[in-house]
Amino acid sequence: MKESILSWLKNRYPVDSVTEFAQKKKVPLFQGTIWYYFGGITLFLFLIQVATGILLLFYYRTGADQAYESVKFLMTKVHFGWLIRSIHSWAANLMVLSAFIHMFSVFFTRAYRKPRELTWITGMVLFLLAMAFGFSGYLLPWNELAFFATKVGTDIVGAVPFVGDFLLTLLRGGSDVTGATLSRFFGFHVALFPGIFTLFLVIHLAFVQVQGMSKPIGAKEEELKTMPFFPNFVLRDLLIWLIVLNVLAILAVFFPWELGAKADPFVPAPAGIRPEWYFMFMFQTLKMLPAHIAGLEGETVGVMAFAIAGIFWILIPFFDRSSQRGHKSKLLTYIGIIVVIFILVMTILGYTLS
Amino acid sequence: MKRILIVTVLSLLFVSIASGQQEEEINTCADCHEMMGAPYDSIVHAQSQDIHAQKDVTCADCHGGDPTTMDFEAAKAPETRFRGKPDPAEIPDLCGSCHADPEYMRQFDPGLAVDQLAKYWTSRHGEKLREGDAKVAECASCHGAHGVLPVDDPRSPVYPTRVPETCNTCHGNSQYMAEYNIPTDQYEEFAGSVHGQALLENKDIGAPACNDCHGNHGATPPGIVSISRVCGTCHINNMDLFQESKHEPIFDMMDLPECETCHGNHGVQHPTDAMIGTGEESVCLNCHGEGDSGYKMAAAMSESIDSLKMVYDSAEVMIQRAEEKDMGVSDLEYSLREVRQSLIQTRTMIHSFDVSRVEEIENEGLSVGQEIIRSARELIDEFYYRRKGLGIFTLVITLVVIALYLKIRHMEQQKPSD
Asked: Three-class SS of residue A120?
C-alpha cells in the first residue's frame, strides 16, 4: 500500500529529490544549537494562532455593539470557547516572546551574515507583523482596557512627523477610536496581516531550507559536528512543540484570559492603562522623554528615534563587515547587550513606576 | 450764546448726576442704625445679604418711615406711617402683603408660591396666633427678620438640613412649650431615626425633614386618617398596598394611626425582618395572639421572607465561590439582582397582609435564586473538570514526550552524530 502510493507520487512529482534533500540536510551541533529551536517554536505558535483564530471566527462578531457580547458568549456558553480564546491570547504572547528570543539569538550568533541577509529582513518583517497582529487583536474584544490602550497606542502613531495625522485617521477610521476602528482592526487582524505574514513566512522558510542552518561564526567545516535534520532535528522540534503545547494548556487553565468590562467611550480612562508588554519599553521611553527636545515635540523625537533604530536594526547585515570576514564585532555585541538591557529595564520600569 | 448753552448743559448734567446719587444712596434708616453701633448695626449688616434688599425692598417698605430725611423726628412722623418693630400678630399679614399678592410676586419669579399666608392661618401656629398667643411661630420665627435668605441657600434656617434644628428652637424647649402639653424630644428622636440619619448625617436633602410630614406654612400634626398619605408621599407602594388591605378599615375603626402604629413616628427606624412574624421583636404580636388568623399570617409572611433571604444568601455565596475560581459569573450576578428585587418586593408586599400575594413574589425570587445556585454549582464543577482535563492532557503529553526522548536517544546511540 505504502509502496504503491509512493510510486504513484514518484510518477508525478520529484519525490526523490525531496527525500534526498531531507536526508542530506544537516544541522550544526554545538553549544548554541538550542537557539535553532526558537524559530520552530515561533512557527508552531503561529500555527496554533491560525487554528484557534479560525475557531474564534466562528463566533466573533465585529462592531462596537456586538464584539464584546460575542466574546462573552463564546467564553461562557460555547463548549471550550474559554479554552480556545485563552490559548489564542497566551499563544500570541508566547509567539512574540519566542520571536524576540529567535531574533536576538540570530543577532548574537551573527546568523544574518552573508548569504542570509534576506532571511534576516524577511524575519524582521514577520516580527513587526507579529507585533501588529498583537496590537490589532488586543482591541477586538472591545473591552475597557483594550479600548483605552488602543487610544493611547494610536495617539503615538499620530506623533509621526508629517504623516502622523493621516496615519492616525487611517488607523482609527476617523478622529477617535470608535466602532469604525474596531472594524478596521478586525480587517487587518484576520485578512490583511495573515495574507502578508503567510507570504513572508513562506519566503523566510524557503530561504532557511535552501541555505540551511547557519554555522557558528569562525567554525571550521571539518571540525563541526552535525546531526541529520530528518529525523533527529525534526523529532527534537516535535518534542519541544509538545512541551510548549502543554505549557499553553497549563497557562490557559490556571490563568484564563480575562475579558473585563465592556468599553465605554464616555467614561474616563481607568487607572493603569498599559500597552501589551512587548510595547512597554517604547511606551515607557516615550513617557520619560521631556516635552520638548531641540524645539520638537519630545514624543515626535522619540518616535523618530525608534524608527531610525528599527531601520538600522533591519539593515544590520549590510553594516556588519566583521561577520563577513568571519569574526564577531565586539561593538555590535555591546550594542546588542545594551539593546537587551534597555528593553528589559524600560519594561520593568513601565510595570513598576506608576 | 454758545457759552451760555454749554454752561446750561453742564449744569443740568451735574444736577442730574447729583440727584441720581441722592436717590441711590440716601437711606437714613441704615445710616442712623449703623452709627448707633451694636446691637443696632447688626440689622444693617444682615441686610446686606437679605434677599429682599437684593430685590430693592427697603427698610421703609416693611417698617414705614421716611428714609430720605436726616431729621429723626420727621423720619418717624405719623404721616410717614412709621410702624417700627411689628407685633408678632402683625407679621403674617405684613409679609403676606407682598407674598400673597400673585401680581406683585410674579415680577420676581412667576413660579413662586403665593399661598403661604392662606396656609399659615390654617396651621396650628396660625390658629393660636389668631387666638392671641404671641408665642407661636410666625414668618420671622423660622425665616428670620433681617438677613432673610432664599430657602435653597444652605445657610438659611429653612434649608432642608436645618429645618429640624429651626423647629427645635421652640419645640425642643421644654420650658417654652410647657403650656402646650406636647413632647419636646422630637428632635432627639428624629436625629436617631432612619430619616434623621439620612438628612442630618448623610446630608441627603431628599430625606424628609419636619415640614415634609407636617407641612411648613400650614404645619399641623397629621391626623389618624391622613398619616398613610403623609408616609405614602415617598413610600407610595406601601401606602397603596395598605390602603387596599383588610387592615385599613380596622385601623381606622380602632383609631390607630396607620403606618405609625408599627413603625413609630419621629424615631422611625430602618425596618427589620424581625418586625414581622412571631418573634420577640414582632410588631404583629402587639395586636395578634397565638392561634388567631393574624398570628398565622404573620408566621407565613415571615417564613416567606426568611426562605427567600436564605436562597439569596446561598446564591451569593455560590457566586462568590465560583468567582474565586476565576469562572465568569457576571450573568449570575445580574440574575442575583432579580432575587434581591424579589426580596425587596416581598418585604413591600407584606403591607397587603395577603399571604398568597407575598408567596407569589417569593416564588418568583426562589426559582431565580435556585437557578443561580444550580448554575454556580455547574461552574464550580466545570472548574474541577478543567483541572482534571488538564491533568489527563499533561499526563498524555508527558508520556509522549518521554517516549519521543527515548526514541531520539535510542536512535542517536545507534547512529551517533557526524
From this structure: helix
Amino acid in position A118: L
How near does any CA of chain B get to the CA of A111, in Å? Answer: 22
* B37-46 per-position pLDDT tens digit: 888 888 888 8
Cell of B192: 436617631
Q: What is the pLDDT of residues B53-92, one digit of tens each?
A: 888 888 888 899 888 888 888 888 888 888 888 888 999 9
A238 to chain B, any CB pair closer than 8 A? The answer is yes
Taking only the tens place, the pLDDT of each residue in B128-151 is 999 999 999 999 999 998 989 999
C-alpha A287: how far from its chain's center?
A: 24
Tell whether A259 is within 8 A of chain B (Cβ).
yes
The reported pLDDT for the residue numbered B21 is: 45
Note whether A231 contacts B: Cβ–Cβ < 8 A: yes
Pair A346, A281: CB distance under 8 Å: yes
Contact residues of B toward A, CB < 8 A: 326, 328, 330-331, 386-387, 389-390, 393-394, 397-398, 400-401, 404-405, 407-408, 411-412, 417-418
- Of the residues A80, A235, A236, A244, the best mutation for testing chain B's interface (the one with the most B CB atoms within 10 Å of its CB) is A235
| d(C-alpha B355, C-alpha B301), whole Å | 6
Contact between residue A86 and residue A256 where contact means Cβ atoms under 8 Å apart: yes
Mean pLDDT score of chain B, rounded to an integer?
89
Tell me what pLDDT residue B1 has.
Answer: 44
Question: What is the sign of the dihedral through the CA atoms of B369, B370, B373 and B374?
Answer: negative
pLDDT score for B418: 58
Please give the average per-residue pLDDT across B331-360, as a whole number. Answer: 96
Cβ of A249 within 8 Å of Cβ of B404? The answer is no
pLDDT at B80: 86
Q: Which of residues 278-317 of A touch B (CB under 8 A)?
A: none
Would you state the pLDDT for residue B222? 72
Average pLDDT, stretch B336-354?
96
Q: Which residue does chain A place closest to B331, by CA atoms?
A: A76
- Is residue B369 within 8 A of residue B339, CB to CB? The reply is yes
More confident residue, A218 or B361: B361
- CB-based burial, A92-114: b 16+ in 10 Å, e otherwise: bbbbbbbbbebbbbbbbbbbbbe
- Provide the grid cell at B354: 395577603
Angle between helices A280-288 and A330-352 in degrees, nearest 10? 80
CB contact (8 A) between residue A243 and residue B417? no
Percent of chain B past pLDDT 70, that is, above it, reads: 92
Residue B404 Cα to chain centre, angstroms: 76
- CA max distance for chain B: 138
Look up residue B254 and give its amino acid.
M
The span from the CA of B152 to the CA of B148, in Å, is 12
Choose from A25, A27, A29, A239 for mutation: most chain B CBs within 10 A. A239
**Contact pairs from chain A to chain B, CB under 8 Å:** 55
Q: Which of A231, A239, A253 sits opposite B390 (nearest CB)?
A: A253
- CA closest to B379 among chain A residues: A76
Encode pLDDT of A270-294 as tens digits: 887 888 999 999 999 999 999 888 8
Q: How many CB atoms lie within 10 A of CB A13?
A: 10
Is A249 in the B-facing interface, judged by CB distances under 8 Å?
Answer: yes
Say how many residues make up chain B. 418
In terms of average pLDDT, the best of A56-70, B15-29, B33-47, B212-226 is A56-70
For A239, the closest of B331, B393, B405 (CB atoms) is: B405
Selected for mutation to probe chain B from A44, A73, A76 (highest B CB count within 10 Å) is A76
Helices A298-314 and A280-288 pack at an angle, to 10 degrees, of: 140
Q: Which residue has the cell 423726628?
A: B73
